[in-house]
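ok trying this again, last paste got cut off
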Amino acid sequence: MGEIYLAEDTALRRNVALKFLFPEAASDPETKNRFCDEAQAAASLNHPNIVTIYEVNEYEGRPYFAMEYIEGESLDTLVSDEGLPPQRAADIAVRICRGLNEAHKLGMIHRDLKPSNIMIDNEGQVKILDFGLAVSPRMRESEATVSTGGTLAYMSPEQVQDGPMTTASDMFSLGVIMYEMITGKRPFEADYEASLSYAIVNEEPKAVEELKPETPLEIIDLISRMLKKNPEERFQKAGDAIEALDRVATPETRFWIGRTIGRSSRKFVFVSVIIIIVAAALYGLRDQILPRTLEKKTLAVLPFENLGDSGDEYFTDGMTDAVTMHLARFGELAVISRTSSMQYKGSDKNMKQIGFELGAEYILTGTVQWDKRADAERVKIGASLVRVEDDTYLWSESYERVIDKVFALQSEIASNVTDALNVAVSRDEILRMERQPTQNLEAYDFYLRGNEYFNRSWDKEDIEIAVGLYRRSVELDPDFALAHAMLSRAHGMMYSEFYDRSEKRLHDARQAVERSLELDPGLVEGHLALGYCYYCRGEYDMALEQFAVVRKLQPNNRYLYNAIGAVQRRQGDFDKAVQNFIRALRLDPLSFLRAFDVAVTYGLMRRYSDAEKYLDRAIILAPDWPLPYVYRSWLYILRDGDRLKAHKVMTDASAWIDFSNSKYYWWLARIVEDDYDAVIAATSPGSDTAAYFLHLAQMNRLLGRESEEYAYSDSARVILIQKMSARQEEARYHSYLGKAYAGLRMKEQAIYHSRKGVELMQTSRDAFDVIYLMVDLAEILVIFGEHDAAIDQLEQLLARPGFISPSCLRLDPLWIPLHDMPRFKNLIGEKSEKQGT
């Protein structure tokens, strides 16, 4: 359809690829429309595994679009006649799936997936190109069902026959690509198009194991399913294949930056030092900030050891989690949270050491073996309860049950533990423990797999996979209340993490939890999920009512006190919030997230010494997590006005941490860094592309580069207008859009949207996020010379909890235009000349 040029974007100083429609085709309305459809289709997608479209325009009658320039090689040049190692192929395929899933969720079909349309950049990132043949729901049915091109060797049978196409058609093409990546050969080959078409529709390819015997069976099965002739027998869309591919891909696919240390020698040395000092530091901090809860017996359930196949690890973790949640129901027990206990998986530490680190008086250990070879599948479990003080066994038992008795087995273990500890158990609690969550073991399996991804990280891909697995679980058993509750939680996470701020996402979350509570009105997880639904909507009093129900039913629920603290912080009740965050940390003493929540809340309260203590704890627990270092640096600015100390924290940490895509660091960089050009060069987009462009616009404004500021601001404006088309009343989008218009020097629009953002946030009574939006408004007012109005905002910020202090105002270059104003000098503690020196 066109020709592509490498070009330089002189305003933004970057290379781009320009795709022009051929001159002879530009006069044909149908071809021109298809070309524009390609640009619009690709531009509507925003994903790291899809090429980014920057601009769509026309030059001398020829339409063109500018897109991301990728330095690397296409997949067809990467794959040799010998093929790729199977796990490497699966790693590439799962990344293709993640990008393709973004299109499939919008109802798009690519229709031309092939190796030459897949790029691998120099950093190993996978990018899907060329949506020229893509169809979307907007197209006429006749356009969507006719193949109109494509590359024959990679077409699905229905595409070859000009039949109805679905997202499953793309999955066939991906199967062809995977087959070729592993074997070095295409599954269907012939000398003539007619014979090739016949082979695709009627013949089976040579078995992968014949050509590449070392290929794992799971990968062979995946390819076989993708290449089914009947579309209904394939994965129906890319999202369905992600979880299966992820299990067989390389370890990098499973990488979680918040918990995994890198492999460079410098990082290894640093982590070794941390391991040496962590015990002493952690013990001292525990005694200082986590006083023991004497009135309760403290129990830790360590991860049960999987004695079966490695693929059963999720099942073993699910058993551990189920027993933990059963025991958390009892008020006499303080049960250590899963996240802290899971850190001892595979540990060779003795019981006394683990008990001391967790603050646990008793420890439950176990082994699990899922025996699938017998006529009736069986589960074998060994469990032991140890008293830490004298390292003695209070109780030990072995169990063997058929698989469909697994729920009774979980409650039996919990009941035996409460007996050994002399914990009083009511009749109602016994009945609830004995209740089976589902009769469908396949549904339970999908539920456990969903939990695996939900608990893995906050990454968008993991939460999306969890949503898909929970959905499959409730499809198999529509009466599975627990799975409905967790489906609601996963939808809520997609919303609260700003991955999907649509009303549909909130509706899906509410619908799932209502079904959950309809099935089981007393379900703890259902009330917890409903509380999170209210939280997402800003209905904080209603959220607290639900969390009160959870507290009554399960006083040691691992999510409970953190959820209460989060609501109270939004409501501006920081004293109560910090106490609940501390309580959550007592139940989860090795959680860097819980420690960080306490630190941030103390920082908002301007109790900087307390904040520092918990930041140190978070850094010890997660030395590779960027956020505590950023806030540690902020602390030196807020409390001490010490820019050099703040800079040293970031410089030292950058030896093992990449801050380039952290928007929290971007806010700090303008204060602590001297070389703004170096900051710009080192910055890379994170998940919030609009924030990335606004950051670069701000840096260029501080450097006096108006054209660059304008270009980046306009890029942010385009993204935000698209986002707001589906979410008109989103406070953060209004605030961001105000900053974008300020960069374009459009005063009326800038101030309107910024004030609108603050008003919406104040209406929702969010005392936490409104702080950031008020700073944005003050910055915009300064840009347009509305200095008194800007100082009004800063005065309000200093009068309430937040991340603003006199020393911060003094150092931040945003407020340089205010420095000579008496009101500002009064704010930062300096006397004006009229007042005398």
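PB: full thing came through this time. Residues 290-434 form a domain with the Rossmann fold fold (CATH 3.40.50.10610).
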